[in-house]
Design brief:
The structure is a homodimer.
Chain A lengths: L2 E2 L11 H11 L4 E4 L6 H9 L4 E4 L3 H15 L4 E5 H17 L4 E7 L15 H7 L3 E3 L7 H13 L5 E7 H5 L25 H11 L3 E5 L6 H14 L2 E4 L6 E3 L13 H8 L4 E5 L23 E5 L4 H7 L22 H11 L4 E6 L7 H4 L6 E4 L9 H11 L5 E6 H4 L5 H7 L4 E7 L4 H9 L2 E2 L3 H5 L10 H7 L4 E4 L2 H13 L4 E6 L7
Parallel strand pairs in A: 2-3, 2-4, 4-5, 5-7, 6-7, 8-9, 8-11, 11-12, 13-14, 13-15, 15-16, 16-19, 18-19
Antiparallel strand pairs in A: 10-14
Helix pairs in contact in A: 1-2, 1-6, 3-4, 3-14, 4-5, 8-11, 9-11, 12-20
Catalytic activity (chains A, B): 2 pyruvate + H(+) = (2S)-2-acetolactate + CO2
Enzyme class (chains A, B): transferase
Pathway (chains A, B): Amino-acid biosynthesis; L-valine biosynthesis; L-valine from pyruvate: step 1/4; Amino-acid biosynthesis; L-isoleucine biosynthesis; L-isoleucine from 2-oxobutanoate: step 1/4
Chain lengths: 529, 529
């Protein structure tokens, strides 16, 4: 077990680090995605004394934070991260941004210098609070070692209060190594208030609206409404009232497959979204935010709500009541199967067909396929039921870490990471954690040797790059990246597929074997159409 | 050339993005380490219109910021980075922290949403200013598109004002695509004030101090004093007065090799540093900060200045005057050569001997060798003259990016990156940029399959990890990482060395060929001694 040789050890008392680990466990947090440094060594030692906490080593902090996001989306409760001072927190931020946009509860434990060391501006000193606040979450810094027990409880409660957020505990090294009696927990610790709801329409009013103006109404589902129950209720509403129903562009967790209605997602391209919402005079948001375009484009609208339309907010838990109110019966979906795997040189369309045809029961898809993934939603509509986790905050490098977290949360579900090549490079060391933990993840790299999304966006923002210099920044060839070689370097068995048949064979084999596999799916080099 | 099809184009006017690129060039910034996204597409297009700016694509923002740091340390002037909104800036922060500690001038250009889009809380919206301020640098946000020319000039001046800092320009997409007349540059633009100096001792007083109390005085050199001239002056002072002379623990750029005095560096371990400074009653800082331990440890002092000692600050430019004042002659250094390359199974000591024996003339060493690199300073003292760039801010993942920047700054100097395995994983995609740009970099991975520094630190903070769970967080085996395979995946020719002879053969071959190479030097698995 972890031992403190320091004179501050007192019989019968735990070190601060042990208090933190024990309190996390008592509040239901039993996985820690860790990238520790010197200031976290007592926390590391405490893991031996408190074996119920599962540590998962990540080789980069952005893997730890993305894994905590993926874990929360599947487990429905937070994991901890263990990060090394400000620079460690900084490396975690991009995927904490995605977690924030997914409303995933995450509890960061960020080691800090001993309190008496903080004023010395030692090399690793920086403003950790500022980074915690950047996530729009709560930041918890103890005033004394005796505060740790209460403080960690408050942090977990803050993270898990609906709709979920990032909570950051700053753990000074001296508080971590001291063995100090803790202040008693209060019976009724002050609860963090959930964010004020802005629900402004109830079942009766929504029912009236849809009975009278369904052809001019759109239901937009997000957050908790994209689980299977929400999608089924929305499909009943659509069947009964004839209203349009859409799912937000990047849901945190979307139920998919043949047992749930395949509802259209609001398009990423503003042009497409504008078309989907055209003519609507009432937009009923259910767990979704008011839709805005991802970026601004010259001469195009940023707010996607049609001019003059009224925006309503319906509570997610009222969705099935609304379906009942409207008397909607569950639409009968004709049983269907995805087609047999296709053949021929690989392209985005037959790649999607292969994945759809072979997708196992109850899979989890971590989807950062980006441009090359456009055919996936249609192809997988009749695959077995599965969940899809998407890029909620637009900070790329999310897909592989989220797959790690999902696989830790659901060890008996196959996880498929559909990952574009450019985005894969940001947090590629996630592969090593997959190997270390022998996670059942099949990574498919959609390798088109380009930041294809940027070649598209370059045109959409109203400019052109005819020149070699600008093209060089959007092209990932020279040299081509061999992801199979990289994966093998990180200990993940890997192969390359150039045809649909090869992909099907390799995907089937990867799914049949335990542990992680990577398939580098070599697509035609992308160029704007 | 870059063209704006938007109606805002006016004849004779440049887009905001072109203004920014042109102003950077006018201020002497002609390299841009870039990881762009949609909001930076006009900047990308402008690179075609303004071909004097050299864009260098990086696959992760931490590579771009570390490269800008390495570039500044060698070129003595800033490079630009191009980053994508808050999450892109977040990924750059850890190496900006190192740049801050190195006093490297860096100019970040961070694309932001169009100004009218910023209030919509679109998915990528976040507080970019907060991240810029975290670097302790300046943040420049234009109030209008007409401000860009002035603003970029101010940012470059802020970055380059002594001693050097990180300046961040926030570039909204609409200002970037608009073609707007610029406010005229003022003749005397308000200069950024250099940080107030705290110089409190001049040549005469320092001379008097050293003549009378040399045996109780220590000169600690940092910043600009670690160039060859400073080291020679300090060696003359030591020879004349008999004072102890030390170099700070992690210098930004340290001249080394047989033409410069091999001055001892202040130890990383507080125990060692305390020993080096013991008995000093006067500590004369020359470009260095007051020494403090990297971390706090139970029962050990954090401030390394001996009790009761007086701390003085001497200006770097007074160092050679002080040597003259004391009448110090340059010590004659007997000509020496490093020994012939050794043989036998590889270990940290013979690895250092191989590097030292084969180090080419005028090399640059990017040193993130950490625990495995302890024998390097002694071994390379008689190697040909070279510069060493170290981990100034303790944020690991710095060595490979800094090597990229150094190689771009000095295309005719061989760059050697000595890189520990754990740290290499943070920013490993730097290898791809080395391949893309065909940079003459030889990476040697000191692969001991452990966070050895943490195994050491675990003991030093007064705790132990006897258990499997804590050990699992400090060990990088299961699976072992094959860096040669990873390097080949990123397009860098690579090999593995298990003996000193193999390392010597491979190192010689890598130096003889242009372009990047990686050698995965397999050391005995580290365990605390």
């Amino acid at each position: 077990m972890g031992r403190v040789d320091d004179q501050s050890e007192q019989p019968g008392l735990s070190t601060g680090a042990e208090v933190v680990v024990n309190r996390l466990l008592a509040e239901g947090v039993d996985v820690c995605f860790a990238n520790p440094g010197t200031s976290e060594m007592h926390f590391v030692a405490a893991l031996d004394a408190v074996p119920a906490m599962r540590p998962v080593l990540c080789l980069f902090e952005g893997v730890a934070s993305g894994a905590a996001d993926g874990y929360a989306r599947i487990a429905g409760r937070p994991a901890a991260t263990l990060l090394h001072l400000g620079p460690g927190m900084a490396n975690a931020l991009a995927n904490l941004h995605n977690a924030r946009r997914a409303f995933s509860p995450v509890v960061n434990v960020v080691g800090d210098h001993a309190t008496y060391h903080q004023s010395l501006d030692a090399p690793l000193e920086s403003d950790i609070e500022a980074l915690g606040q950047w996530t729009h979450g709560s930041v918890h810094r103890p005033d004394s070692a005796a505060d740790l027990d209460i403080l960690v409880r408050e942090a977990v409660q803050s993270a898990t209060a609906p709709p979920g957020r990032v909570a950051t505990v700053i753990l000074p090294a001296d508080y971590s190594w001291e063995a100090t009696a803790q202040k008693p927990l209060l019976d009724n610790i002050s609860e963090v208030e959930p964010e004020p709801g802005d629900i402004d329409i109830d079942v009766a009013a929504a029912g009236e609206l849809l009975r009278t103006q369904a052809e001019h109404a759109v239901l937009l589902l997000g957050g908790g409404a994209t689980a299977a129950d929400g999608l089924r209720a929305a499909a009943r509403i659509r069947a009964a009232a004839g209203a349009r129903v859409l799912v937000e562009t990047f849901p945190a967790r979307l139920a998919r497959g043949r047992d749930v209605p395949a509802l259209e997602r609001l398009g990423y391209l503003a042009e497409q979204a504008t078309q989907q919402l055209s003519g609507a005079t009432h937009l009923v948001l259910v767990g979704a935010k008011t839709p805005v375009s991802f970026f601004a484009y010259p001469g195009k609208p940023s707010v996607l709500v049609p001019d003059g339309a009224t925006v309503h907010h319906l509570a997610v838990e009222d969705l099935s009541g609304l379906a009942d109110e409207l008397g909607g019966a569950a639409p009968t979906v004709p049983p269907s199967e995805p087609g047999a795997p296709p053949s021929g040189p690989l392209n985005p369309q037959n790649l999607a067909q292969v994945i759809a045809a072979l997708l196992p029961e109850n899979a989890i898809i971590s989807d950062e396929a980006n441009t090359s993934g456009v055919f996936l939603p249609a192809a997988t509509a009749s695959s077995p039921p599965h969940d899809v986790l998407t890029l909620t905050g637009g900070a790329i490098g999310q897909g592989l870490p989220v797959a790690v977290g999902a696989a830790v949360a659901a060890p008996h579900r196959p996880v498929i990471a559909l990952q574009s090549d450019g985005s894969a490079a940001y947090t590629i060391s996630a592969l090593w954690t997959m190997a270390r933990e022998q996670l059942d993840i099949t990574v498919v790299i959609l390798n088109n040797r380009a930041y294809a999304i940027l070649q598209l966006e370059l045109m959409r923002v109203g400019t052109r790059a005819d020149g070699e210099r600008s093209r060089s920044l959007l092209d990932l060839s020279r040299p081509d990246i061999d992801f199979a070689s990289i994966a093998q370097g990180f200990g993940v068995p890997a192969s390359r597929a150039g045809t649909a048949e090869e992909l099907a064979d390799q995907f089937r084999a990867a799914l049949a074997e335990p542990g992680p596999h990577l398939i580098d799916a070599v697509l035609p080099t992308w160029s704007p159409g």
